[in-house]
Amino acid sequence: GENVEQHPSTLSVQEGDSAVIKCTYSDSASNYFPWYKQELGKRPQLIIDIRSNVGEKKDQRIAVTLNKTAKHFSLHITETQPEDSAVYFCAASIGGAGNMLTFGGGTRLMVKP
Amino acid sequence: DGGITQSPKYLFRKEGQNVTLSCEQNLNHDAMYWYRQDPGQGLRLIYYSQIVNDFQKGDIAEGYSVSREKKESFPLTVTSAQKNPTAFYLCASSIMGGPEQYFGPGTRLTVT
After folding, report:
1. Residues of A in contact with B103 (CB under 8 A)
2. Which of A32, A94, B5, B37 is 20 to 30 A from A67 via CA?
3. What is the mean pLDDT of each run of 10 residues along chain B (112 residues)?
Protein backbone atom coordinates (compact mmCIF):
# COMPACT_ATOMS: atom_id res chain seq x y z
CA GLY A 1 0.00 0.00 0.00
CA GLU A 2 0.86 3.68 -0.03
CA ASN A 3 3.46 5.03 2.39
CA VAL A 4 3.88 8.75 3.07
CA GLU A 5 6.93 10.15 4.84
CA GLN A 6 6.90 13.72 6.15
CA HIS A 7 9.83 15.92 7.23
CA PRO A 8 10.71 17.62 9.44
CA SER A 9 8.71 16.47 12.45
CA THR A 10 9.18 19.86 14.12
CA LEU A 11 9.99 23.22 12.58
CA SER A 12 10.61 26.48 14.37
CA VAL A 13 10.78 29.75 12.42
CA GLN A 14 10.80 33.43 13.21
CA GLU A 15 7.70 35.41 12.37
CA GLY A 16 7.94 36.66 8.80
CA ASP A 17 10.25 33.88 7.65
CA SER A 18 9.22 31.11 5.25
CA ALA A 19 8.50 27.53 6.23
CA VAL A 20 8.80 24.46 4.02
CA ILE A 21 7.48 20.99 4.82
CA LYS A 22 8.28 18.06 2.56
CA CYS A 23 6.54 14.75 1.92
CA THR A 24 7.44 11.74 -0.16
CA TYR A 25 5.07 9.01 -1.30
CA SER A 26 5.62 5.51 -2.56
CA ASP A 27 2.70 4.68 -4.88
CA SER A 28 3.14 6.23 -8.32
CA ALA A 29 -0.62 5.82 -8.87
CA SER A 30 -1.36 8.49 -6.23
CA ASN A 31 -2.93 11.52 -7.86
CA TYR A 32 -4.32 13.68 -5.08
CA PHE A 33 -2.26 15.38 -2.38
CA PRO A 34 -3.97 17.44 0.33
CA TRP A 35 -2.48 19.36 3.22
CA TYR A 36 -4.28 19.68 6.54
CA LYS A 37 -3.67 22.07 9.43
CA GLN A 38 -4.57 20.89 12.92
CA GLU A 39 -4.56 23.19 15.92
CA LEU A 40 -4.24 21.67 19.36
CA GLY A 41 -7.28 19.55 20.21
CA LYS A 42 -9.11 20.56 17.04
CA ARG A 43 -10.10 18.84 13.84
CA PRO A 44 -7.76 18.80 10.83
CA GLN A 45 -8.71 21.51 8.34
CA LEU A 46 -7.98 21.19 4.63
CA ILE A 47 -5.85 24.18 3.67
CA ILE A 48 -4.70 23.37 0.16
CA ASP A 49 -4.54 20.42 -2.19
CA ILE A 50 -3.00 19.56 -5.53
CA ARG A 51 -3.79 17.02 -8.18
CA SER A 52 -1.24 15.20 -10.27
CA ASN A 53 -1.99 17.12 -13.44
CA VAL A 54 -0.40 20.31 -12.08
CA GLY A 55 3.00 21.05 -10.62
CA GLU A 56 2.21 23.98 -8.38
CA LYS A 57 -0.76 25.63 -6.72
CA LYS A 58 -0.85 28.82 -4.70
CA ASP A 59 -3.36 30.36 -2.33
CA GLN A 60 -2.21 33.66 -0.82
CA ARG A 61 0.71 32.82 1.50
CA ILE A 62 0.45 29.08 0.98
CA ALA A 63 1.73 27.10 -1.97
CA VAL A 64 2.18 23.45 -2.76
CA THR A 65 4.55 21.96 -5.31
CA LEU A 66 4.49 18.45 -6.73
CA ASN A 67 7.27 16.50 -8.40
CA LYS A 68 5.69 13.32 -9.76
CA THR A 69 8.95 11.95 -11.10
CA ALA A 70 10.61 12.11 -7.71
CA LYS A 71 7.35 11.34 -5.90
CA HIS A 72 7.52 14.21 -3.51
CA PHE A 73 5.46 17.28 -2.73
CA SER A 74 6.02 20.24 -0.48
CA LEU A 75 4.08 22.89 1.43
CA HIS A 76 5.48 26.41 1.40
CA ILE A 77 4.26 29.08 3.81
CA THR A 78 5.60 32.58 3.27
CA GLU A 79 5.55 35.51 5.69
CA THR A 80 4.69 33.24 8.58
CA GLN A 81 2.55 34.54 11.41
CA PRO A 82 2.06 33.23 14.97
CA GLU A 83 -1.40 31.94 13.99
CA ASP A 84 0.29 29.61 11.50
CA SER A 85 1.58 27.64 14.51
CA ALA A 86 -0.06 24.20 14.33
CA VAL A 87 0.56 20.65 13.20
CA TYR A 88 0.50 20.18 9.45
CA PHE A 89 -0.25 16.85 7.78
CA CYS A 90 0.30 15.84 4.20
CA ALA A 91 -1.61 12.97 2.62
CA ALA A 92 -1.80 11.05 -0.63
CA SER A 93 -4.62 9.25 -2.39
CA ILE A 94 -5.07 7.25 -5.55
CA GLY A 95 -8.66 8.43 -5.67
CA GLY A 96 -11.29 6.14 -7.05
CA ALA A 97 -13.36 3.87 -4.85
CA GLY A 98 -12.96 4.72 -1.20
CA ASN A 99 -10.79 7.79 -1.78
CA MET A 100 -8.59 6.57 1.02
CA LEU A 101 -6.01 9.02 2.27
CA THR A 102 -2.66 7.91 3.63
CA PHE A 103 -1.26 10.52 6.00
CA GLY A 104 2.25 11.56 6.83
CA GLY A 105 3.33 11.69 10.46
CA GLY A 106 2.84 15.44 10.80
CA THR A 107 5.03 18.51 11.28
CA ARG A 108 4.69 20.73 14.31
CA LEU A 109 5.32 24.28 13.12
CA MET A 110 6.13 26.91 15.70
CA VAL A 111 6.27 30.54 14.63
CA LYS A 112 8.06 32.69 17.14
CA PRO A 113 6.95 36.34 17.37
CA ASP B 1 -17.45 24.36 10.69
CA GLY B 2 -20.74 22.42 10.89
CA GLY B 3 -21.86 19.53 8.77
CA ILE B 4 -20.09 16.72 10.61
CA THR B 5 -20.73 16.23 14.28
CA GLN B 6 -19.20 13.82 16.74
CA SER B 7 -20.34 13.14 20.24
CA PRO B 8 -19.35 13.20 22.94
CA LYS B 9 -16.24 15.40 22.88
CA TYR B 10 -14.71 13.52 25.82
CA LEU B 11 -15.49 9.94 26.84
CA PHE B 12 -14.21 7.95 29.78
CA ARG B 13 -14.61 4.20 30.12
CA LYS B 14 -13.34 1.39 32.24
CA GLU B 15 -11.23 -1.31 30.67
CA GLY B 16 -13.31 -4.22 29.39
CA GLN B 17 -16.30 -2.12 28.38
CA ASN B 18 -17.44 -1.59 24.82
CA VAL B 19 -18.08 2.03 23.85
CA THR B 20 -19.77 3.56 20.81
CA LEU B 21 -18.69 6.86 19.28
CA SER B 22 -21.21 8.82 17.26
CA CYS B 23 -20.61 10.47 13.87
CA GLU B 24 -23.35 12.28 11.96
CA GLN B 25 -23.17 14.38 8.79
CA ASN B 26 -25.75 16.48 6.96
CA LEU B 27 -23.59 17.18 3.92
CA ASN B 28 -25.22 14.43 1.83
CA HIS B 29 -21.81 12.82 1.53
CA ASP B 30 -21.72 9.22 0.41
CA ALA B 31 -18.42 8.15 1.95
CA MET B 32 -17.51 8.25 5.64
CA TYR B 33 -14.31 7.36 7.46
CA TRP B 34 -12.97 6.73 10.95
CA TYR B 35 -9.42 7.61 11.93
CA ARG B 36 -7.44 7.18 15.08
CA GLN B 37 -4.85 9.74 16.17
CA ASP B 38 -2.32 9.11 18.91
CA PRO B 39 -0.30 11.93 20.55
CA GLY B 40 2.33 13.32 18.21
CA GLN B 41 1.33 10.99 15.40
CA GLY B 42 -0.54 11.06 12.15
CA LEU B 43 -3.98 9.72 11.35
CA ARG B 44 -4.55 6.03 10.80
CA LEU B 45 -7.61 4.67 9.02
CA ILE B 46 -9.80 2.30 11.02
CA TYR B 47 -12.84 1.73 8.76
CA TYR B 48 -14.50 3.42 5.83
CA SER B 49 -17.86 3.19 4.11
CA GLN B 50 -18.72 4.25 0.58
CA ILE B 51 -22.45 3.52 0.67
CA VAL B 52 -25.15 2.52 3.10
CA ASN B 53 -24.90 -1.05 4.40
CA ASP B 54 -21.35 -1.44 3.16
CA PHE B 55 -18.02 -0.78 4.87
CA GLN B 56 -14.39 -1.84 4.55
CA LYS B 57 -11.54 -2.35 6.99
CA GLY B 58 -8.75 0.17 7.07
CA ASP B 59 -5.21 -0.30 8.34
CA ILE B 60 -6.05 -0.81 12.02
CA ALA B 61 -9.54 -2.36 12.17
CA GLU B 62 -8.81 -4.97 14.83
CA GLY B 63 -10.83 -4.36 17.98
CA TYR B 64 -13.25 -1.98 16.27
CA SER B 65 -16.62 -2.40 14.57
CA VAL B 66 -18.87 -0.08 12.57
CA SER B 67 -22.30 0.04 11.00
CA ARG B 68 -23.79 2.16 8.22
CA GLU B 69 -27.54 1.82 8.38
CA LYS B 70 -28.17 5.41 7.31
CA LYS B 71 -26.30 7.68 4.92
CA GLU B 72 -25.97 10.33 7.63
CA SER B 73 -24.58 8.12 10.38
CA PHE B 74 -21.45 6.00 10.83
CA PRO B 75 -21.01 4.95 14.48
CA LEU B 76 -17.80 3.33 15.67
CA THR B 77 -17.73 0.78 18.48
CA VAL B 78 -14.49 0.33 20.36
CA THR B 79 -14.64 -3.17 21.75
CA SER B 80 -12.89 -4.68 24.73
CA ALA B 81 -10.67 -6.51 22.25
CA GLN B 82 -8.92 -3.25 21.33
CA LYS B 83 -5.76 -3.44 23.42
CA ASN B 84 -4.92 0.24 23.57
CA PRO B 85 -8.12 2.21 22.96
CA THR B 86 -7.13 5.53 24.53
CA ALA B 87 -6.80 7.97 21.61
CA PHE B 88 -8.39 10.85 19.69
CA TYR B 89 -10.95 9.54 17.20
CA LEU B 90 -11.82 11.51 14.10
CA CYS B 91 -14.67 10.93 11.68
CA ALA B 92 -14.58 12.31 8.14
CA SER B 93 -16.79 12.32 5.07
CA SER B 94 -16.52 12.96 1.35
CA ILE B 95 -18.66 12.88 -1.76
CA MET B 96 -18.45 9.71 -3.82
CA GLY B 97 -15.57 10.03 -6.24
CA GLY B 98 -14.35 13.24 -4.61
CA PRO B 99 -11.08 13.01 -2.75
CA GLU B 100 -11.60 15.93 -0.38
CA GLN B 101 -12.33 14.69 3.12
CA TYR B 102 -13.83 16.90 5.79
CA PHE B 103 -13.41 16.09 9.44
CA GLY B 104 -15.62 16.20 12.48
CA PRO B 105 -14.42 17.76 15.76
CA GLY B 106 -13.26 14.44 17.20
CA THR B 107 -13.88 12.40 20.35
CA ARG B 108 -11.14 11.96 22.91
CA LEU B 109 -11.55 8.51 24.48
CA THR B 110 -9.80 7.61 27.69
CA VAL B 111 -9.92 4.04 28.96
CA THR B 112 -8.59 3.25 32.42
Report:
1. 36, 43-45
2. B37
3. 85 92 95 92 92 93 97 96 93 84 94 92
